[in-house]
Amino acid sequence: MSDTQIDMDHLSGALRRETVKKNVAAIHISGKLTLLQRKLSNVLLLNAYDALTSAQTHTIDARTLAMMVGYNSNDFDTLRASLRALAETVAEWDMLDDKGRQEWGVSSLLSFAKLTNGVCEYAYSPALAQKLHDPKIYALINVHIQRNFSSGHGLALYENCYRFVRTGSTGWWTLETFRKLMGVDGSSYYESFKHLNAKIIKTAVAEVNKSADIVIEPEFRKKGRSVTDIRFLIRENPQMAMFQIDDSEGVRNLGVYRALRAQGVSDRLARQWIAEHGEAYVQQKLDYMKGQGDVKSTVGYLSAALRDDYSATTAPEPDPEPPTAEAVAVAAARAAEKAAEDQAYEARATERSARAAKFAIVEDLVSRRNPTQRDADKQLFMASLRDDLERESFAAHGWRSGLNATAIFEFWAELEPGAFTG
Fold first, then answer.
1. Are 330 and 119 in contact (CB under 8 A)?
2. Domain Initiator Rep protein WH1: where (predicted)?
3. Where residue 84 falls among pLDDT bands split at 50, 70, 90?
């Protein structure tokens, strides 16, 4: 999570308040996780995201998890060690709550994790789950992008910079804060700026610019001859557009999407595979798998087929053994998870329909106002927005701003009592 990066790694001291103003995920995850542990944290959050606030625990097939992260699928010792590291990692946040009050909190990154019969079960604390269930944080969980990184420092820098891509700069961080974000605080070697710059800053910047969808450039601030602060200028990388998961109904209407769902693939993972590999390639692997007989883990086999481009000459022989108790348990857990996900999807569809109806009402209300009133309404609403991201969205989309939907409906309900009733 950001360490799945979720690395929502965050800042401390005066920088926290600046970050809160920009509505950036103000969650700091201690930075001493390895690259594989960061990737594991990302995949676990990706798997749990849809049910993050509605389910107390989450499950995933352990072999599938290992393969997605890059472990040997039989290396359960490394997987156990990495899960232990996540459970021992502290997440801390300091931000404004939904009522505008300052809120501080701390939680372990995973409240628990266990491996039973080939299934990994894990959970987040309720308070942390609420913080992680945020579209701005989900945007950071990019399995496609993270696969390009070969160092934890490069991935950590990417995650911390990408959070500020809309503003074009991270803002100034003290070197102490930067060392914490990179997980090298407490190292006497990196107390020297010469060593920090040569081994961390330059190498991490080079990897981000080579591997990611943004280009960053460090700038330094000095006091006398000593460097005291660092910030990164950020722009999009035109050579590598950000891999985006298409949340539109278009993807869910594709035959290949429905075929993936029929194989037990989650909604989010199905959309991710289609966006990353393309409809034709995914369908090709589905067709190939049909001729391979029964496999123990459909999702795991498909993941490997997509990653390694299985064909008749390259794919390993599937295990023809009858389903084991482990496989039955995995299938049952997946079926239950899929049912819960389908139910959640229906609920979201109803919610989207209701929101669309409210936006139509707002559009009608706006059309009835004269030009002077419309201008005053916009200025009044803009003044009520707390951060740059919300204001930027409203400036671009006006009263159709999805990011500000709740605030827009509350504004017009107060301005036109009864507008949304009846």
1. yes
2. 19-161
3. very high
CA distances from 139 to 49, 155, 175, 199 (A): 11, 14, 27, 28
d(CA 222, CA 157): 21
Amino acid at 210: K
Instruction: Using alpha carbons, select from 39, 273, 266, 249 the residue that is nearest to residue 140.
Output: 39
Query: How many other CB atoms are found less than 10 A from the CB of residue 126?
Result: 11
Which carries the bigger pLDDT value, residue 226 or residue 374?
A: 226
Measure CA 95 to chain center. Answer: 19
Coil, strand, or helix at residue 248?
A: coil
Question: pTM for the complete prediction?
Answer: 0.41
Per-residue pLDDT for 112 more than 90? yes
DSSP-based three-state secondary structure for 105: strand
Q: What are the residue ranges spanned by the domains of the chain? A: 1-141, 153-244, 249-322, 341-415
Q: Do domains 1-141 and 153-244 have the same CATH topology?
A: yes
Q: CATH classification of 153-244, choosing from 1.10.10.10, 1.20.1250.20, 3.40.50.300, 1.20.1740.10?
A: 1.10.10.10
Residue 101: CB atoms within 10 A of its CB come to: 8
Residue (of 405, 367, 389) closest to 168 by Cα position = 389
pLDDT in tens, 127-161: 888 887 765 554 444 555 666 777 888 888 888 88
How far is the C-alpha of 30 from the C-alpha of 90, rounded, in Å? 6
Give the helix ranges, DSSP H, for 4-115: 14-21, 35-48, 62-69, 76-87
Structural element, H or E, at residue 29: strand 27-29
CATH entry 1.10.10 includes domain 1-141: yes
From residue 353, give the alpha-carbon distance in Å to each of 197, 271, 349, 359, 362. 52, 21, 6, 10, 14
